[in-house]
Each structure stands twice: as C-alpha cells, then as structure tokens.
C-alpha cells in the first residue's frame, strides 16, 4: 500500500535546489509615468501640467508640444489642442486663443490658419464671419476682400445677385437712379438714343412717338403737325388743309 507525503514549502525549495532548479523571480512593478496632459524631465512624477498654448498627447512625455497653426489651447494640462472655429483662425504656433476673421474676409472651415477674402460679387461686413454675402440686385462688387457692395450708377443696372459688374441700359431705356435692378422704358412722346442713359428726351416739335421704349421719334406725316414737345401723337390739319412736308410744327403750316 502506497502513502503520499505532503512537502512543506521549504522542503520543496530544498528539493528544487538539490536538482538544480530555482524559482522564477517576481516581476518588478511598472514605473509610474506622467499621464497625457502632463510632463517632466524624465517623464515620471512629479509631473507638470502642459501650459496654455501647448499639449501632451502621450504618457511619459519629457516636454509639452506647442499647438500647431489652426489650433489653440486656453487651458492647462490638456492632451490635445482645439481647432479654430469657423469664422476664426490661428496663424501662429503655441496660441492661447483664436482670432476672428477681419472685415472683408471669412472662413467656412474649422482649424484654419488664415481667412479667405470675400470673392468678387460678394462682401463681408462683420468680423468672425463664416461665409461671404452675395451682393443684392442693384449692387455689384468687382474686387475681392470688400466690406460692402457698390450701387449700380445711374444709366446702369444689376438684375441678379452676386454680380461683379453693372450693365448699361440699352437704347430706348434709361435709369435716373442709383442701385436699381432694371432700366425704365422711354415714355410715349420720348426717346433714348444712346446706351447707358440716365434720362429720357422729349420728342421735339414736329415729331412724336406713340410707343414706349423707343430710341427715336417719328416726323409728323404730311397733313398733320406737332406743336408741343413730348407729344405721343400728331395733330391732323383742319379739314380741307394739309402740309407740304413731313415734320410740320404748327397749325400755320396747314394750308
């Protein structure tokens, strides 16, 4: 009959030594490291919080890293930097704050190091803008980076939004006001002979114009006369009389 004998720890160690074996050493504990957002010269405690304008992303860091352009950090002990919001920018490294885009510029993306000039046909009239505003009908802008749009001058018009130039009124039309989206037709009894006109002209005596939007007047036909400037019709001679030529200016021409 077999008997089992329990061995003490010391007996087991002695047995192992006697046969040439030694127990494995206990693993040493992991050293303490500075955590993200902090650092020290050797990366171990005591640790210092990352200053504003910097960050520490990994543990065991020996120094803080300045925030790159387009980002900033306004708090100590941070593991990352903040992107500049839309309408703002950060041009330098190690920034503590973002800067609002100045007048005439905008930024529609986050984390940027500069702002964009307002394109031609638009404007930016306030700081910190995230988009440019198109010029309204009646106005235009032919340059970049502007804070306002320009009214269409008299004799010209702008029919659409976002225009980079004004358009001349065509013959037969005019515009006597600034900042308009269309031109005016010449009234009956009037004409506009040239483009980009800021006024209409009365038909002179001896002529008339029934229609609107015309660039010339008509001579009074034979048998009629026009004795008033700006007339829309010619006046027929009294019954039994006529004129010798077109363009008569007085009833006295009727005979």
Q: What descriptors fit this protein?
A:
24 strands; disordered N terminus; 255 residues; mainly beta; 1 helix; two-stranded antiparallel sheet
Strand order of the largest sheet: 1-2
Largest beta sheet, briefly? Answer: 2 strands, antiparallel
Number of helices: 1
Number of strands: 24
Secondary-structure element series: HEEEEEEEEEEEEEEEEEEEEEEEE
Q: Mean of the pLDDT scores?
A: 93
Radius of gyration: 45 Å
C-alpha termini separation: 167 Å
Sum up the overall morphology in one term.
rod-shaped
Query: Helicity range of the residues?
Result: under 10%
Percent of residues in beta strands: 15-25%
Low-confidence stretches: 1-19
- Derived from helix and strand composition plus strand pairing, the structural class reads mainly beta
Give a short summary of the structure:
The chain has 255 residues and is mainly beta. The protein has one helix at 9-18; strands spanning 38-39, 48-49, 54-55, 65-66, 71-72, 82-83, 88-89, 99-100, 105-106, 116-117, 122-123, 133-134, 139-140, 150-151, 156-157, 167-168, 173-174, 184-185, 190-191, 201-202, 207-208, 218-219, 224-225, 235-236.
Structural account:
This protein is mostly beta strands. Mean pLDDT is 93; it is low at 1-19. It has one helix at residues 9-18, and strands spanning 38-39, 48-49, 54-55, 65-66, 71-72, 82-83, 88-89, 99-100, 105-106, 116-117, 122-123, 133-134, 139-140, 150-151, 156-157, 167-168, 173-174, 184-185, 190-191, 201-202, 207-208, 218-219, 224-225, 235-236. It is 4% helix and 19% strand. The strands form 12 sheets. A two-stranded antiparallel ribbon has the order 1-2. Strands 3-4 form a two-stranded antiparallel ribbon. A two-stranded antiparallel ribbon has the order 5-6. The chain is rod-shaped. The longest helix is centred in the N-terminal third of the chain and has 10 residues, at 9-18.
């Amino acid at each position: 009959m077999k008997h089992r004998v329990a061995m003490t720890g010391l007996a087991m160690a002695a047995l192992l030594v006697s046969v040439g074996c030694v127990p494995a050493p206990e693993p040493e504990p992991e050293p303490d490291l500075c955590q993200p957002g902090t650092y020290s010269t050797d990366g171990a405690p005591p640790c210092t919080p990352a200053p504003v304008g910097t960050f520490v992303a990994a543990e065991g860091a020996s120094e803080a890293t300045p925030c790159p352009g387009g980002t900033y950090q306004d708090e100590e002990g941070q593991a990352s930097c903040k992107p500049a919001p839309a309408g703002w920018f950060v041009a330098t490294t190690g920034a503590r704050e973002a800067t609002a885009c100045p007048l005439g510029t905008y930024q529609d993306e986050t984390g940027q190091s500069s702002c964009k000039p307002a394109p031609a046909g638009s404007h930016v009239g306030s700081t910190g803008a995230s988009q440019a505003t198109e010029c309204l009908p009646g106005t235009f802008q032919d340059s970049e980076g502007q804070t306002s749009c320009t009214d269409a001058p008299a004799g010209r018009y702008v029919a659409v939004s976002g225009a980079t130039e004004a358009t001349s009124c065509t013959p037969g039309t005019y515009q006597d006001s600034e900042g308009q989206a269309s031109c005016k037709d010449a009234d009956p009894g009037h004409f506009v002979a040239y483009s980009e006109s800021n006024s209409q002209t009365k038909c002179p005596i001896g002529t008339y114009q029934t229609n609107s939007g015309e660039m010339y007047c008509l001579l009074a036909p034979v048998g009629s006369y026009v004795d008033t400037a700006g007339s829309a019709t010619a006046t027929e001679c009294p019954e039994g009389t006529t004129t010798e030529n077109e363009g008569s200016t007085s009833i006295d021409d009727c005979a």
